[in-house]
Write a structure and sequence with these properties.
4-stranded mixed beta sheet; 8 strands
Length: about 180
């Protein structure tokens, strides 16, 4: 049996706090915090996942008004015990190169590209947590459909702009070769 590395042990009986993620230099990339527990994304990222995220970031960035940042794989600090990392976040916040998370008040849209290993978390756990934190716009994107079929009615932030992007129909599936 392999011993658990010391850095993986929670620093307190109630588990990890959202701010602890910024000091866990040993943690793998894409580490999330759900209910005070670390969640590691250990399976390798697939090309289809990267292409969907890239296509969405590009499409939404092209439409975003001034003051709206579109970023990939940045966590959202929902509360003291929850800091998930969606595939994409659109937020009404000034650009800050040292930023490691957005807050729910800044977050206009969260997109999760649903993978087989994260399907339950993305479709149930994170959906509920984003809603409880007041994030009104959540797009779960699936590989099989490879495009988004919905558009939020109005993206509003308590302290930011209102934004209604055009419908996004981004096909990231295999391209036919003629």
């Amino acid at each position: 049996m392999t011993a658990v590395p010391e850095w993986m042990r929670p620093p307190r009986p109630e588990g990890w706090y959202a701010d602890d993620l910024d000091t866990l230099t040993e943690a793998p990339r894409h580490t999330e915090l759900i209910d005070g527990a670390l969640v590691f994304m250990m399976s390798p990222q697939r090309v289809w996942h990267a292409r969907i995220v890239t296509a969405l970031v590009n499409a939404l960035t092209d439409q975003a008004p001034s003051g709206v940042e579109v970023d990939r794989e940045i966590t959202v600090r929902l509360d003291r015990w929850n800091r998930p990392e969606p595939g994409l976040v659109a937020a009404a916040a000034p650009y800050d190169p040292s930023r490691t998370f957005y807050t729910p008040e800044e977050t206009l849209l969260v997109v999760e590209v649903v993978s087989p290993e994260s399907a339950h978390r993305d479709r149930t756990v994170k959906l509920r947590k984003y809603a409880e934190a007041g994030i009104a716009n959540y797009w779960p994107s699936r590989r099989r459909t490879a495009h988004l079929w919905s558009t939020p009615t109005n993206w509003t932030c308590r302290h930011g702009p209102t934004w209604r992007p055009e419908s996004i129909a981004t096909n990231c599936g295999p391209r036919s070769r003629s």
